[in-house]
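Appendix B, example 12.
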Amino acid sequence: MNSTFFIRLLRLTILLILQILVFNNIHLMGYATPLLIGYMLLCFERGSSRIGLLLWGFVIGIVFDVFSNTAGMASASCTLLAMMQPKLMQMFLPRDADEDFKPSLSSMGFWKYLLYAFLGMLILHATFYSLDAFTINDWQLTLIAIGSSAALATLLCIATELFVRFK
């Protein structure tokens, strides 16, 4: 086991504690509940193992499901985000990026990182709230919840990135 694994495990623990105790209780205007657990998946390096990334996504989601009683919705959402993260990151990479490129605010620039984080959070929230609604009767409310939660989670990702990277 290397130190990267333990750093990720510590980051997972902190994010899950914050998500379960703080962010699950935020419901702005009754719709926006951010899922910051996707931030960890967005932080994986470019050369990360695809299987390892999928396993991390599933573990993050299943632990969140156990503590939040969401019946597999988070594990499906996080696994989908983990599957799409390499292609999503490649859309915003500089052309001369290294194999171990780590997406961050300082390495990608503000606007590219903002769009990268927003699209990642949009994928996560669209999957989560679509599975939560599981109907098209209230599709307007589902779209409002997806958009507002993804925007709020993106702002929290930027704030977390500023807090972690630029101490």
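The longest helix spans residues 139-165. The chain has a mean pLDDT of 87.
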